[in-house]
Structures are given as C-alpha cells and as structure tokens.
Amino acid sequence: MTTAPSSEGSRSMNDAHRVLVLNSGSSSVKYQLLDMRDRSRLATGLVERIGESSSRLVHTPLAGGGEPRERTGRIADHEQALKAAADELAADGLGLDSPELAAIGHRVVHGGLRFSEPTVITDEVLTEIERLVPVAPLHNPANITGIRTAQALRPDLPQVAVFDTAFHTTMPEHAARYAIDVETADAHRIRRYGFHGTSHAYVSRRTAELLGRPVAEVNVIVLHLGNGASASAVAGGRCVETSMGLTPLEGLVMGTRSGDVDPAVTFHLKRVAGMSTDEIDVLLNKRSGLVGLCGDNDMREIRRRVDKGDERAALAFDIYIHRLKKYIGAYSAVLGRVDAVVFTAGVGENSAPVREAALAGLEGFGLAVDADRNAVRSGEPRLISPDDARVAVAVVPTDEELEIAGQTFALVHN
C-alpha cells in the first residue's frame, strides 16, 4: 500500500470528502470510512484479538452493498492490523492513498482538562496524551498506538483526536471536583472527567432535533446504557453533570463494573481480605456489575432468566434499575427543568423492559412510557412517551463514529 496521495492528488482539499474513523483498543481496532457529503458509510471493519493466533478481521463494504469478508490468522500488532484494514479498503477501491480522504479521526478516551475540542494531532498533542496515561492506563496507550501507526501510513494526512472527555469539560467546578484535599487532587489530576462524551454530545443534539427545538433551549438527561454505562445532565447543549468520574468505573451499574461503591470497600478488601491493589482493580472493573451479581452481563440473557424466575438475575436487574432511578432523580434536581429523558446504546436502544422499569413510579416527575410505543423496535430516533406527557421520553440510537467523523471533517475544512 502506498502512503502518499496518488497522481490524482492535484485535486483541491475541498474535493477530499472522506474521513476514516479509528477506535484502537488494547487488542482490537474498529474502523469506519465515511463520505461526509451525505454522511454515509462506505465501509466498516473490526480487527480483534491482535497479537493472538486467533486474530480475526471482519470487513464490510457498504457502498456497493457487498458481503462481509473475514480473514483469520495471527495479526502481530496494531501496525499489521491497520495495514490489513487498509488492504481491505483498497480492494474495494477505497484505499488510504485516495485523494478523496480528507483526514483520519481517532477516538481518544482521555483528554484531561486541556482538550475540550477536537484537535489536530501534533508531537506536542501526542506528548500530552501520553502524560494522561496514568489516569487512563487501559485506554490511552492503545489510542496512542493507533495514532502512531496511522501517522506512519499517511504522514501527509491530518490526524485528529476526538476525546471522550471533551463534552464534559463544561461541568462546573462544584460538579467536577471531589471533596478531597485540593493540593493533593491538583497534584495528581484527581477530578471528575466523565466519558462517552461523543455519544452524549450526539444524542443530546439529536434529541433536540427530534423535539423540533433549538439545542440551546432543551434540558436533557441522557442514559448511555451499554456494557459500559453512563448518565449525563445536559442543559442547553452543555454538560453540567455526568456519572463517570476520574475513570469509567464511577456511576451506574454496568456489565462488569461496579459503579458507585463506598471508597472504604477498597481499604476493607486490602486489610481484611488481603487483596492487592491490582486484584481489587480487576474485581471492581471486570468481576463486578451485572456479571458479579448474577454471572451474566448480557441484558437479554438476564431478562430471560428473570422471566423464568431466577432470583439472582432478578436481584441484579433490580439493583441495575434502582441505580438508574437514583441518577434520573438526581439529575432532574440538578437541571431544575427536564424536557426529555433519552435512552441510547445497546441496552438503552433495545431493552424495552429496562426503559419501562427505569421510569416506573416516576410519574410525579412527569415521566411515563407508552407501552405500545416502547415495544416498537426501530433504528430511528423516536418518542416512547404518551402524547400528553409533561417530559418527553425518547430512544435515540447513538452514532459515535459519525460524531467523530463530523467533528474531524469540520476541523480540517475550517
């Protein structure tokens, strides 16, 4: 694969209308190629189990309605993974050497306080992302690897970082600070940053569009419910509170993460159970949440078990819903006026029982779900509240890749 524009590159930058979005995880790379003229997807793909003998690449060309292609066999590292993805794109006539490619947008999990907007990646920016590794040890190193690999493949192309934390930098200090010694907190960057920001930004904006009102006039509670889960209170398009904190561990009950716990639990486990810091980290991040409560983190399976009378699954579901209700109530108080509560991400978009249970008993808040509307499965944004409801309840499918592509394209074409 070549890494410089082809001879067709005499076209102006205005003719470059494609954006490649990369989401580099510790052992995977997800990618999407989008045409920003109509915001359509040209191709999507996933490389998983990087570094293992069972590595797998699944590539789906969408522009011509092609069938998914799969290849297996060891992919040693992220460089090989991106080169393999580039080869698949080239096979569809969508190679990274195309002059139609305007930029590569990277999902970067942690941007700290410095990065509140999408940012063209320079050496200085990359150094700052590296400095944030201690507060995002599971995510930023993989993001950095993806950036460096993409830079090596297309050194002439703008590379843009879009930060998960950026949307939440508008939180006021009284919401962002923990009540611990200020000097200690500042010395070690301890504060609430929040995550899933691209999803909360996209969904809150789309909710205003669904209501037919300007973003600046709408107060929304966004519930991003996937294997990772977070809530946000968005006032007039600005985040004023969110459930995740220094790390993605705080807040709602998640697939494998505990969410809120008394901090003294960690001291107790260390002193009484003799667990190490690393063991406690694994417990709270990978062996807690729904999987810790009932052995499953798939809400569909949990609901099947609940319907069969499984008491552990029922308790796990009730704990999950109880935490959701607490945040809906708290964020209603923070906002003062709520125009909509919106569900998004895998569970939020697809689990009618979760949506119904989360709002049951909250009629005093003006919240209600229409059973027939709630039962409808659709990939489109939609209202599921009764016509006369004081507060709208909506389901809005998230699209983090489109949000990253849009922010990236807007930046390089300014």
UniProtKB/TrEMBL annotation:
Name the reaction it catalyses: acetate + ATP = acetyl phosphate + ADP
> Its pathway?
Metabolic intermediate biosynthesis; acetyl-CoA biosynthesis; acetyl-CoA from acetate: step 1/2
Q: Show the active-site residues.
A: 164
Under which main EC class is this enzyme filed? transferase
Q: What are the EC numbers?
A: 2.7.2.1
PROSITE patterns according to UniProt? ACETATE_KINASE_1, ACETATE_KINASE_2
Q: What is this protein called?
A: Acetate kinase
- What species is this protein from? Streptomyces argenteolus
Gene it is expressed from:
ackA
